[in-house]
Amino acid sequence: MATSDKFQTYKNVFDEKTLLVLAKLEGQGYFDEIKSPISIGKEANVFSAIKKDGTYVCIKIYRTFTADFKRMYRYISSDQRFKGLQKKRMQIIRAWAQREYRNLLLMHELGINAPIPYIARENVLVMEFIGDKLGNAAKRLKDDTPKKIEKFSKILINDLAKMAEKNFFHGDLSEFNILNYKDRPILIDFSHGMKIISTEEKGLFIRDINTIKKYFSKHGCKLKIPKILQ
Which of 32, 79, 144, 172 is catalytic? Predict the structure, then answer.
């Protein structure tokens, strides 16, 4: 299978296998053209892409060489959904993408404000684009303070409580992993999401809550934390 010519622009950014995956997803109609980067990180690059009907999707591409797969393995090895996972780079990165896909599906089922996932294949995840019709992505909370911050915080706390009712938490929650979309919180980056099964996970859960308390306190908003999040 030849890589589509339209992806040759990215041949110095992604490896050949990733380009082939992108070409296959494009051929299946998940998107027609990659438009622009939304975020560039050590673990993954996120792009906006447009479909033939003019609507946008979001493409998250996990790095295959520079990602810290040993750290990923530490997180995912305790996840019962991936029991028996071997400590091999590509296997772990594929599982990492699948983990975010499954976690986002769960969030959708729970009615949490998070992107809807469409497909995860190899190290590529295609999901709902959060932004306007022109392709301008919503900003992260760290870059866009809500105008009605108390209302924003209440929606966020309600979502976190819904997750906690299912014994689930984000695992890496901060102003870097929350979007401000029309003054509503959208939770993103769910590859760390997991259930509380030991004191270690409980510690990470408490860290999540303390991190957002610190952010809102800095902006003059004292959070009312329900018992389930304590």
Answer: 172
The CATH class of the 138-230 domain is mainly alpha
Q: Do domains 14-135 and 138-230 have the same CATH topology?
A: no
Give yes or no: 189 in active site: yes
**Is 143 one of the annotated active-site residues of the chain?**
no
pLDDT tens for 112-125 read 999 999 999 999 99
**Which CATH code is given to the segment(s) 14-135?**
3.30.200.20
Cβ-based neighbour number of residue 161 at 10 Å:
14
Q: Domain residue spans in the chain?
A: 14-135, 138-230
Predicted structure pTM score = 0.90
For residue 123, what is the enclosing H or E element? none
* Given the residues 79, 144, 189, 208, the one annotated as active site: 189
